[in-house]
Each structure stands twice: as C-alpha cells, then as structure tokens.
From TrEMBL:
Transposase IS801/IS1294 domain boundaries: 145-315
Any GO BP annotation: DNA transposition
Domain Transposase zinc-binding positions: 8-101
Domain of life of the native organism: Bacteria
Gene Ontology molecular-function annotations: DNA binding; transposase activity
Transmembrane segments: none
Record-linked Pfam families: Y2_Tnp, Zn_Tnp_IS91
Protein name (Swiss-Prot/TrEMBL): Transposase zinc-binding domain-containing protein
Length: 408
C-alpha cells in the first residue's frame, strides 16, 4: 500500500480540479506535484561513496519537504516534536488540552480555509481561553504560558478544525510565586471555552456570516468540547518526543490505514479509530471525495500553525527562563539557559534512519568506514557538486550505483 496514496493523486488530481475548480491554484498544484515527485531520483539525488575502499555507495533521493507529503510529513513531525520538546521547561509540568468547535461552525471555517485570517483568530482564541481558565481555577491573574497547535483533520480524515495546547500546569502570581494548577470542576473547561469561542467569533464576524448559528450554539454545550489530560506530559526527553509526535504531529492519514484502492471501481477504502466506539472502523469513499478530504488539510501559504504565548514566547527566552526557574525555586545559570536554547531540534536523514531502523545508512558494508558525500545531481541543473572535481579537477572517482539517467 506504500504507493496507493501517490496512485490516487496521480490518477485523480486533474479530475478533482475539474470537479472542484477552487483547488486549481498554483499553491495546491505545487503541493501535489511536489508529493508526486518526492523520493524519485530522476528529480534529484545525493550520492555517498566509501572513499576508503570505493566498493560501497548509497543514493539518497531528494525529498519534497512538504508537510502534505506522507513521507516528509513523518520527518517534519519528528522535527516538530523535537522543536517543541526543546522549548518546554524541565521543572514545569505540562497538560495537554484539546479544544473543538461545534459542527455547525465547520462550514464557515471551510469557506475561509484559503486564507489564514480565521485560522489565526481561532488560535488566538485558544490563548484567550488559557488566560481565562487559569484565572478562574487559580482565583488570581497568573502569568502563564502555552504552545497552541492548529489541526484541521479529524480521526476520520475529514475536516474538523481543532486546537491542541501544551499548557504550563501553573503560572506566576503578581507576587512572583509559582502557583500550580489545582483540582477543579471539569465543567469549567467547556463553559470557559464556549464563552471564549463565541466572544472571539462575534468579534471576528464583522459580516455576520456566523449569526445564524450563534443563537443555536448559545443554548447548549454540545460541540464546545474541551479536554485536559489528568496526568502531565512525560518529562523524559525521548518519552516526551514520542508523546508529542502521537498527539500533535499526526498527518492527514497514514499509509498503514489505506486498505484498498481501485481506480476501476472508483473506490478508496481506509480504516480509522472511531472516537465513539473506540474501535477501528472502515470508511469507503470515491476518489474525488478522498482527494478533497486530503487537500482541504493544506494550510494557506506561509501560515504558521504553531504559536507560542506568554511564558513560552520565543522572544527574550533567556529572561523568561530565568523568571520561571526563579518562581519554581530552581537556580539556573545563564550558560545553562543558553545551552538549553541551543539544543539541536532537527534530525537529518542519517539520524532518522538510525532512529527508525537502528542502522547507520552511511557505514560501508565492505570495510566499515563512513561514506562521504561525493556527488549531487538536480533536475534541470545536472551535477551541482562533485568532490572529485574539487580535489582533482575532473571526476576520477568510482561511479557507484548511479541511476540510469540522462544527466545533462
């Protein structure tokens, strides 16, 4: 099933654009074309050679780097989880919060998916909720912090905008003391989120697009779902990264969920874990509908789906770190703050292969030495790097396992 996702888009993308012309734009075409070309060496690759014995080599096809790509999305998810883990304070507990919207709001959200205005306002509402919630639980205004992540995909891979929040389980009082999150009535969650969301939407909705659903939404809680994990997030770095990857970095669909694809029957079959039953259920749909469910998860150009607020703000990180550590009673020297902020948060190809499969992809199978980058080839440009040209003025190195391509 590894190629079914690509086959579906290869077979149905042009038909989908004819059926839904609003997606026939440079932005969406670029995303889909990048995915279809991803991992194919004909569009670019790097070659690694063992310069010790010259008997082993490895071709690494260039990736598209698109978050929409299931291959690159997994890599982006790992890097994203590491990036967030590096920004969390070691001595502070964090709670995972999920905020959803009523189903009647989704149609209007979907109408504005091509621009980032409503999405940005929605994320800001998450921060407004955090401030109101912390104040009501603590009984005093706290200086708190959180990381808000926008998700637009539901368990069924359908369009369900919602927010995931990594919330500091406490805050700093006006007196400079750290106040931890106490036990509270869980009805506060839904009540506060409903009030915050409706107020935020009324403030954003200058044209009155949502007016027809406001009156219905105000009379009931249904749809204003707010959930907070009872237990804090793990503190060990590896466990924390695994936790963040599971809940905050989930792609629109995984390859293992795709069960069957038939272009003749015009059918795509995939499974999903139902929230209501708690079991895996089967979804059958046609190609056009499936592609629509996938591409509506693509965010507008240059949109930032991750926002940092309050004590988690990236601005003046050293000052905020010192302030938090002082409040929780931990002495932290400036060099340690700088070291923590300098932790690498991105994994390269070698790191990920070692993480996923437990092997070094660049260790020579013949002599055990590390292979070196020897050549880089790009589509339309030819060879853009050749270590032998740099060292000797011409290519005298072994060819290795080069693809059968016309390079120039």
């Amino acid at each position: 099933m590894a190629n079914d996702f690509l086959k579906i888009f290869s077979d149905g993308w042009e038909k989908f654009k004819s059926a839904v012309p609003s997606y026939d734009s440079p932005h969406y075409n670029k995303q889909v074309e990048a995915v279809l070309r991803c991992g194919d060496p004909i569009f670019g690759f790097s070659q690694y050679l063992c310069l010790n014995c010259g008997k082993d080599s490895r071709i690494v096809a260039h990736s598209c780097k698109s978050k929409f790509c299931l291959r690159c999305g997994r890599v982006d998810g790992e890097n994203f989880a590491q990036s967030i883990a590096a920004k969390l304070y070691e001595d502070v507990d964090y709670r995972h919060v999920v905020l959803t919207i009523p189903s009647q709001f989704r149609t209007n959200f979907c109408k504005h998916r091509f621009t980032g205005d409503l999405y940005s306002a929605f994320i800001s509402m998450g921060w407004d909720f955090v401030k109101s919630f912390m104040k009501e639980v603590a009984g005093v205004v706290l200086e708190c912090g959180c990381i808000v992540v926008l998700h637009t995909v539901g368990r069924k891979s359908d369009y369900k905008p919602h927010l995931h929040i990594m919330l500091m389980s406490g805050g700093i009082s006006p007196e400079g003391q750290w106040i931890s999150l106490k036990r509270f009535d869980f009805s506060i969650l839904n009540r506060t989120w409903k009030k915050t969301l409706l107020a935020g939407m009324r403030n954003w909705d200058e044209l009155g697009e949502f007016e027809s659903v406001f009156s219905e939404s105000e009379s009931r809680y249904k749809g204003f779902y707010a959930h907070i994990d009872v237990n804090p997030a793990p503190k060990k770095r590896r466990n924390l990264i695994r936790y963040l990857s599971k809940y905050l970095c989930r792609p629109q669909i995984s390859l293992k969920r795709l069960l069957q694809y038939s272009s003749k029957k015009d059918e795509v079959v995939y499974k999903y874990n139902s929230h209501s039953s708690g079991k895996n259920e089967i979804e059958r749909t046609n190609i056009i509908n499936f592609i629509g469910r996938m591409v509506q998860q693509i965010l507008p150009p240059r949109f930032k789906r991750i926002r940092y607020y309050g004590l988690q703000s990236p601005s003046n990180r050293s000052r905020l770190t010192a302030k938090v550590c002082e409040a929780v009673g931990r002495l932290v020297l400036l060099p340690e703050i700088e070291r923590r902020s300098a932790v690498p948060t991105r994994s390269c190809y070698k790191d990920l292969i070692e993480l996923w499969w437990g092997e070094d992809p660049f260790r020579c199978k013949e002599c055990g030495h590390q292979m070196d980058l020897a050549r880089i080839w790009k589509f339309g440009k030819g060879w853009i790097f050749n270590i032998f040209d740099l060292l000797f003025g011409h290519d005298i190195g072994p060819p290795g396992n080069l693809p059968d391509l016309c390079y120039d």
